[in-house]
Amino acid sequence: MRIAEFTLERYGRFEDHRLTLPKQDQDFHLIYGPNEAGKTTTLCALADLLFGFEHRVAHAYRFPAQALRVGAMLENGGEHLSLRRRRGRTGTLVNAEDAPLDEGRLSAMLHGMSRDAFLQSSSLDHARLRDGGRAMVESRDDLGQMLFAAGSGVTNLKQVLTTLDEELDALWGQRRSERRAFTRAETLWKEARSKLKETSVKPAEWSRSKTELNQATKAFLDADVARRQAAAALADVERLRRVYPLLARRKSLLDDLASHAVLVVPEATEAAARGALEVAAQQQQKRDAAHALLEAVQATLQSEPDQAPVIAVGDQVDALVQDLSAELQRRQDQPALEADLAGARTTAQTLSATLDLTPEQALKAALPPSGVIQQLRDHVKRRVELATRAKAAGEAAATAREECRAADQLLAAAAPPSELTKLEAAVQVAQRAGDIDEQIGKQMMLAEREEEALARSLQTLQPWSGAVSELIELVPLPDEAVDEAAAQVSAAKRSAEQAQRVAADRAEALDLAKAKAEALAEGEGVVSFEMVREARDARDKSIKRIGQHLGSCPPLTSPGEEIEELKRSVTAADELADRRFAAAEAAAQLAGARAEVAQADIRHRHAQDQIAQALTAVQRVSADWMARLNAQHLPNLAPEELRAWIRRRALCLTAKQAVDDAEAEGLRLRTRRERLHQELATALGREAGNASEPLEPVLAEASGWLEVLKRAASAFDALKADAKSAYARQEEALRNLKSAERQVEEWQSQWDAITAEVGLSLQPNTADIRLSALEELGRAREQAQQVSGRRDRLEALSKAFANRAREIAVALSLRSDHDPVDLVRRAKALLEAARTTAARRHTLQEQADQHAKDRAAADAALAAAETALSDALTLTGSADRLTLAEALDRARERRELEERLKVLDQELVEQTDGVALAELEEACASLSFDELGARAEDGRREAEEATTRAQDARSIMAEAAQHFKQFEAQEDAAGWASEVELARAEMDGLADAYIMKKTQRLLLGHAMKRQGERARHPLLTRAAELFRTLTLQRYANLVVDRDADKPRLLGVCDNGDTMVQIDDMSEGTQDQLFLALRLAAVEQSITSGSQVPFLADDLFVTFDDDRARSGLQVLGELSRTTQVLFFTHHAHLRDLAETLFPSLLVHDLQEAA
Amino acid sequence: MSGFRFLHAADIHLDSPLRGLSRYEGLPADRLRRATRDAFDNLIATAISEAVDFVIIAGDLFDGDWRDMSTGLYFARAMGRLDEANIRVFVLKGNHDAESLVTKSLPWPPNVTVFDSRKPETIDLSDIGVALHGQSFATGAVVEDLSANYPAPAANRFNIGVLHTALGGYAQHQSYAPCSVQGLAAKGYQYWALGHVHAQEVVSRDPWIVFPGNLQGRHAKETGPKGAVLVEVSEDGSADLTPLTLDVLRWIQLEADCTGVADLSEVRHRIRAALLQARDEQASDKDAVFRLTLTGHTALSGTLTDRRDVLRDEVCAVAEGLGDIWLEKLIVRTAPPLETANGAPDDALGLVDEVLDDPELLALMEAELKPFLDAAPQDDCEADGLYAAARSRDWNAVLAAASLTLKTRLTGGGADADR
Questions:
Q1: What is the pTM of this model?
Q2: Which residues have C-beta within 8 Å of that of residue A268, sequence separation ≥ 6?
Q3: Chain A to chain B, count of Cβ pairs less than 8 Å apart?
């Protein structure tokens, strides 16, 4: 479908404005108009024509709404549809006579397209282009989903890709990290190599170490020899020092021995004698002590009495004493037992009253077993639970009823804010109106600007001057008249100019003809007839003179010369004739050229005449034009100038119209604000204030009050919800109450059955007490029985105890009529005293026996010692033990002197180091001990120095040996070499794995890319082509990135690698992308048979000149398949379009106005 | 001439590390790294127990780039034990130890004689009627025939030529000191004690031309028993040769055919069976390190390749259960069943197949793998597998392996199938 003709009959500020849009090869039409020229109005009118007037946008500020009309002639294939649209609810599509037309034909031409769809896809301004484009790339509309849906079939590939990426990252990455296996292996490898290098034993180092060890060893051995020598010298001196005092002591001992008498008592004999002397002395002392003690003990023993009769009954007394505490306990327990028995019987009697039994029954009647009592008690407990539950349910029901009542009261007390709806509607209306205060302010400023523009426009009309009203009343010449006059002037001028051009051309032609003729005439090859004739005349004259000479009339004066002259003239004439014959063509040209010269001269003169006539005509036409202008009070301007003046006048009128429009719009806004003031005041329940005041404070107040009301409404809703909730709880509580009551009834039935079965008459509320009484009665009866038995047993035991006590009393001669307990206590005291006395006698007897035994033993030992001393007494010649001891002391002193000499000799042997004693005595005899000390000090110092030197050498040797030993013991290098190979093998294995996975990754990525390209939607492919054109190849392609969380569109730069997100593109490039997507969608729509005009309203606002050119070319291509109406206010775009499309028809809305 | 006995050994490479073995839980690295010393100890013990008259080491006693003196000292101590047993040792320097600093600095024990490297040297053992002729390598790369200058055989002697040579050329060995069997035979010696070739081989029996092989295998390509030879020469000059197995660690290469396996448990079963057989037949009672290659056509091919790391751990566990046998490397060389090798063109597998030949992908591979290849150590390590292919820019080989495993992943059988 295309629009062949479009008429703004009455619409906005237009009246009977017609756009004729003839179909051409490129159905591209440019509608030009600066701001306020009516571009937007025209676009609205087109939409209103096709889809009906919108109610919210009025274009009725010049014409009444009912009078608004737009019309068109539509073409669709061979079909034509002439239609008009009026404002209204129904039947708005009408024919020329305002009779309703069927919408069906129009709808069919539009393929059922709605106004919104039309505006979104085929009637774009910059804002809609951006909004629609953004919706597509964000997949918010069908087209966007179409873009991204294709190529998403292999979704599981991405998961594989992600897994591969993770595995690769764990193996190796350009940034080193020990968490990556290859890096770890590489680190181990490098460490092992480093360690290998560190631990390897260098041959040169080993050799050097070996040499050092050898040298150190030799130095040590030398130092050690010196040390030994110094030590030997020191030892000699030290030996002398050691033996010097020993030799002196030996001499003294020998002197003592010489002075001591000889009494030889063998050491063993002496020891035996001394031992016997000591034993004899000890035994003598023991015998005397034992004898004295024996006598003292026997005296004491005789004074102690015999206790045998009492001891004889000791066991019986002990048994009674043992039972005494039991008897005392029995006597103490007796009253308590009696009390317990009386208490149990009293309890039984009390319980029998509780249980309505006689005392007899209480003690003998059969009681229910404890299991039955427990069963009954459980039932009672269950009843308590049920009763508690029923009570709780009842309380809950009561609480719920109270809550319901409270909620009802609150609800009744609260009133719904009735004015909310009204106020909300008023505020919404006011808010929808936008910032109307600002709109009014802007509109006033606009009106002022329009006034200024009008003034400037009037300035452009000079030399004409006057008021706008005069200008409006001025009747300009119709275009036809201006055109006719301009055409006449122009034709006259053109005729004059043509005549001048013709004259100039002819003058030039004349000059050329003359030059040509002259050139031909002067040319060497041309022989003119005159030249031939002159040559022949000269020849003939010579012949004539020769003839006359031959006729002797008159004779020649020089015949020979004449003959030569004749020959020359004949030759010259012949030559000229020959040359003329040869140059006959050139001669003919010369003749022609001369003829042309003559002809050109005639034409030139004729052209001069034409110039004069044309100039005369120009003067005449100009004079007529000026006379006509003066007659209509128009400025004296040439027709072309007047046309421009008329256009500027139209601009003035347009400016005047704009002033009127701005004032009208201002008036409309103020009226609306006044209405809003009124509505808000009504909603707020007060009188409207000054309508010229800003609306904003009133609106703010209304909004604030609206919030208050909304909160009140919310609170009211909350109360309602609370009430509903309370009723629900009440219902639930009642249900629970009924259930509890039913369970109580069921329990009662079961209770009756059980009590009947066990033969008890029990009431539920007293059952627990009675059951407890029954149990208590049972326990009291049992207790009474037990206490009675125990009392009888105790009485029997007490009797037996008394009998035994009395028997003992008789045996001990005590009075038997006393209390058995007292008797036992007395018997016990007697027995204890008897036992003490008996024990003492026994101890004294034992002591006497021991003393007698000791005395006998001492006597024996003394006798033996005397016997042992007999040999010693004989040997020493001693008379008794005293003299014997003295003789033994003397023998011991002699022997000790000999022992000391022997020890001294032994010490000398040890200290002489094997040197002969005589040699030492001789050496010592020549030296004093002090001299020996000085020599020893010197020797010691020398030895110490030699030792130090030897130790130093040993340390050096040990260090060298230690160093060398390291080489011997070291085996780590081989281990590290092995580690190197292990790590290297690990690296190779990981490298294999990395290359495998990386290749998988690349392969899969490439396959997915191929898949994406193959599966991409044709819409995207076409959009990419258009985008490439619109961006002047700056972008090469468009791709869908499916690696992101959500598929997204990316631009591919001309290098083929760089991907640019849409948000990273410049605003202009984004617009080009959106236009490319939109045009691709339009082309797709056309392909599918839906062809409607494409209306573009200044879409290139962000395009630079080159991209705007591309944009126009793209739209031009589109216009070969569907009609394109390009609206712009940019003169450069108009100029550009005129350059690109030679047959372009430009519709200037400004002129139309 | 009296009868005598000697040991002929070569290529001991003392203390050189084992190659290609990567560490894992349970691998007795310390034990394995002592392999060359332990094998050498076996040699010394055998020489003493067999009461040989002398020992010949025909080159490559040490590694050339091995500068650890402690290795030399260890060797010296071992020679000391032979000296105590009155056993002489004759050492010839080969291509690996020609320039060894250890060799140059070592205080050779008195019972050790090192052949001169400037000219052929003859050592006359008149007590047992033996003449040894030999020339050590002066440098690590001797390319002329040293045997050509060896002297004529000594009269009334059992002549032994000691030579480190590649003989006529062996594929796995560089062609050092080349010579020919005919040339050696023409010398008139009774025995040629050769070294350099690591596999034991009796090249000729008349005269004896013998490679004893290396003493201990050091990597996966040196499989089978390793040791030296014991030569017993009788009074009449006839010799008898006894190969000795002295190694302590056996390298084994084995394959497990996975043709037709349908699940991983079956794979494990086959691996265990192959391992059991190899251990019994090849390792004898020694420690063993094995390289396992999975072969055959199986639908699990991609899974096996992609799960190689996991599978490797499982193989290690199987080996640990068998005792004293450890995994060096697991190579998956299986292929998918022929009928299912290619994916359908319309699905993801088809896509993968489709881009394999894309030049853009090859350029991408070059660009994306370059940082890793540049960052990885640039040494002359003998890498194999994908790493080697990538280093030589054989992208087609890399892509072939990766595409197979990738397709396995895409069909849910990849490395993360069990996670």
A1: 0.46
A2: none
A3: 186
